[in-house]
């Protein structure tokens, strides 16, 4: 931000919205819609977690949804005053951290899915999925936080360094998610091959339906929904690489439509899928 705008606190002829980091006032209707979606999903996740006694998943998804809701509260603050520094910080911090919590819930679900369908078909031991990939997400967040701290300093010479560290953190997150996708796809393929090798006499469909909470059909729906949820978060993380590559206030960062489609819509779709197609069959049947 040029020095002449450092003291701006509201939109005036001397402090136009075009000179803010985003260059626009966030769309009120869209931000209210996403806030409501995330808030309702957070409540639903808490209630479902209590009902089915699924703590880890409920904590991760409800916390991620709640952070997203708070983040969109920050964007609503920016709608009324695009120069509001507090609103900017709230939405940046919450919207950066929240998807990692949502991904943590998916890593935990993958662990239970492997336990349920057969650990022998997985390249990793079930307990290693959350340990490895959640640790990688934490490292990614730390990198982004360090980069953000450097970028926020008044040292102009370090600004590019801070931006590069942020991009490195996002890229690392994308890479670890891609590895997880490959492992999950391989596990799915091995499970499918194992099932095809069995004859119909080996499989009692009725007994399997009773073993899976909610039945086999709901189990399949949950698996498809979870795969869609993971891919939606993955798309969002990929989008953030070019968004941040140009630094704060870059042309890509100032495209509100791209943000609403590739960040807001993707993350809300992920949360909705994990809430509507709640994976109770995976968690309860794997216990």
UniProtKB/TrEMBL annotation:
Alphabetized InterPro entries for the sequence: RTA1 (IPR007568)
Membrane topology: Multi-pass membrane protein
Keywords (A to Z) from UniProt: Membrane, Transmembrane, Transmembrane helix
Main location: membrane
Cellular component GO terms held in the UniProt record: fungal-type vacuole; plasma membrane
Parts of the chain that traverse the membrane: 32-50, 57-78, 90-110, 131-153, 165-189, 218-239, 259-284
Record localization: Membrane
UniProt cross-references to Pfam families, sorted A to Z: RTA1 (PF04479)
Protein name: Uncharacterized protein
Taxonomic source organism: Extremus antarcticus
Upper lineage: Eukaryota, Fungi, Dikarya, Ascomycota, Pezizomycotina
